[in-house]
Amino acid sequence: MKSDNKNYYDVIIIGGGAAGLSVGAVTAEAGLKTAIIEREADLGGILLQCIHNGFGLHHFNEELTGPEYAAKVETAAIKAGCQIFTETTVSAIIKQANKNITVDCSSAIHGALELEAGAVVLAMGCRERNRGNIGVPGARPAGIYAAGFAQRLLNIKGCVPGKKAVIIGSGDIGLIMARRLRWSGVEVKAVVEIMPHASGLPRNIAQCLEDFNIPLYLSYMTTKINGKQRVESIEIAPHKNGIADMSKAVKIDCDTLLLSVGLVPENELSVKAGIELNLDTGGPVVDSSLMTNIQGIFACGNVLHVHDLVDFVSEEAIVTGHAVINYLNNKAIANNEIKVIPGTNVKYTVPNSYNRAVNNSFYLRSMMVMDSAELTVYQHEHPVYRKKLKHVKPAEMLQIQLPVSIETSMELDPILPLTISLEAI
Ligand SMILES: Cc1cc2nc3c(=O)[nH]c(=O)nc-3n(C[C@H](O)[C@H](O)[C@H](O)COP(=O)(O)OP(=O)(O)OC[C@H]3O[C@@H](n4cnc5c(N)ncnc54)[C@H](O)[C@@H]3O)c2cc1C
What we know:
The protein is an alpha/beta fold.
């Protein structure tokens, strides 16, 4: 509800990366008083350190670098009239029944700030998993970095992290850093991947490893890190079902280890606010309007689920912006929803429910590589929708449109969940 409080905003967006800026452009353009809160001094989020190109092919129909993409979405948000708070960190979100949402912030410029909002959008991005998350044994010397942190050191601070590097994990950040390190004169000895397939996008395997003859060890685990002050070498071995074959162990001399072992949504604020989390994504559970279990709190971008392409982040953010507008105009779109859960070979689906009144867009990830697959939506073992797909990989997020017409093939039970499955054909 509107308020005379000078600190009242119709919409408060937490995070000024691609997601937050793209939502803000939509809500401010619609005349809603919109604030974007960003803890860093500059807007743009993770894009600012991604100086390589490959951004914006779908959304802007051109190939941009990360900072170029950030500049475009920032300009749109500011032009639409968003009020920007930089160097301001949100520390709590509180929603009491029948009241607006309180957003507590700590700002380098304004000090402690208590803002009030009709709706809040979570757009805090994600953070990197680290050594503790993957449990690599061995010493704890200097020279071990999360790959994104090393990217920030190199691209923003201008510091080269070492001379001879090994990258553990073949996620996109690790692949991009392999090439970036080579360009900076660092010898990249290997990329080591525990899975039988690479985790990053195929284009990054080709452009960042194959073009530079950097070896990729698939189905290898890291068995030891050696070194006292600084990393001196690592030992890797092929494995079967998690058991390393030490007879084939290899020792690689290096002074730097980069870990590219996955990202997790930045969810502390969400947990503190009482938002229900989806164990499959690490982000909030959301309905078809991307609203969490707390009325008026929405989520999009990497805080909701980790995206490989920023274009999908902007797309999801635009959907969120329109859902926020509907919510504030009391036009509930998420009514009469049916729960959606991942089935065979599906790691997760977002959103977590199907709206029976509109066409629905779902994002999902496969758990395995399939040359050719059939996606089937079941309700209680009855198929209600089928679609053939080519080249399904965990590294590439899938997007499907579930038409409202799936109701025509069989009347859906409002209580039983829909299950989305992927089967190799
Ligand atoms: C190394 C790397 C390479 C990539 N390469 C490509 C590519 O080639 N092509 C492509 O399309 N995509 C690529 N991506 C993916 C894409 O860049 C991201 O998915 C997208 O930019 C994420 O946007 P976001 O707004 O969700 O998150 P972020 O950009 O992380 O933004 C979140 C923002 O929230 C702020 N924040 C967090 N918590 C708070 C708080 N409590 N208070 C205030 N502010 C807060 C953060 O400071 C940050 O600025 C890449 C990503 C990475 C990491």
